[in-house]
Design brief:
This is DUF4164 domain-containing protein. The protein has 106 residues and is an all-alpha fold. It starts with a helix and ends with a helix.
Length: 106
């Protein structure tokens, strides 16, 4: 009978060791799961920040494109005004020369 008693205690100790091992494995698995969840939250946060930055860059690009279009329109207007002024100056210089030449001939 003492063999049975010893076997029963041995089995109980073996079961307790198995439970302890399983508990440690479970705790390690839970720690790993928690770490994975934290990495995922970080990745999601980084993804959201990247999306915000991309949206801001898109808005900046649109604003800069609008400013460039406005500058091109302004440049074309200035070039046209410059040509008109140049033509008028050339005409005025021609007129002044003609008047001076006519005054010398008299």
């Amino acid at each position: 009978m003492s063999d049975r008693h010893t076997n029963g205690v041995g089995n109980a100790e073996s079961v307790q060791v198995d439970i302890d091992v399983a508990t440690r494995r479970l705790m390690l698995a839970l720690d790993a799961l928690e770490a994975a969840a934290e990495r995922r939250r970080d990745a999601d946060r980084d993804e959201n920040e990247l999306a915000s930055r991309i949206q801001a860059l898109g808005a900046d690009r649109s604003r800069l494109a609008d400013e460039l279009d406005g500058s091109l329109v302004k440049t074309r207007r200035l070039e046209r005004a410059n040509r008109e002024i140049s033509e008028k100056l050339d005409a005025a210089i021609g007129t002044i020369r003609a008047v001076l030449d006519a005054g010398e001939d008299e």
